[in-house]
Amino acid sequence: xxxxxxxxxxxxxxxxxxxxxxxxxxxxxxxxxxxxxxxxxxxxxxxxxxxxxxxxxxxxxxxxxxxxxxxxxxxxxxxxxxxxxxxxxxxxxxxxxxxxxxxxxxxxxxxxxxxxxxxxxxxxxxxxxxxxxxxxxxxxxxxxxxxxxxxxxxxxxxxxxxxxxxxxxxxxxxxxxxxxxxx
Length: 183
Known about the structure:
Helices cover 20% and strands 32% of the residues. By secondary structure, the chain is an alpha+beta fold.
C-alpha cells in the first residue's frame, strides 16, 4: 500500500503514480515510484527525488512527468510518461542522463522506450519530453538550440529589427529638428 497516489484517466485508461513517503515534510526524500497503467505495474527500479510537501506534479519534479501527445495530422493522441532513470547526482552529469518513455495509447497498449543523452535528438520528441523530466534544459542536438525556429525567424527578424531601428532613428531626427526650430 502506498502513502501517496496520483491517478489520471486517459480515455478510460487509468495511469497512476504512487510512492511510500508519508507526511508533508519539507525535506526531500529518495524513493521508488510505482507506475501502473490499468492495474499493470510498469515501475522502474531507479530512485526518484520526492518532494513530500507537494501533492501535484511538483512532487516528482525533474524526474517524472505525464504529457499528452496529440498528432494533429493523424487525429490521434497518446499519453507519455517520461521518467529520468539515471543516478541522483545533483547537478546531473549530462553524459550519464537516461530517460524512459511509456506511451499509453487510447486502446490501452503500452510501449516502452529507453534512451540516453546522446540519443535524445532522434526522434525529435525525445528531447522535448526529456525537458519535462530533467532539472536542466536539454537541447535537440546540442544544448545551444532548445527549439527549432520557424521560417519566419531568419527571414523577418533582421528586417523587422532594421525597420524599427530606422523608424526610431527617423523619429529622433525629426524630434531634433523640431526642437531646434522651436528655440
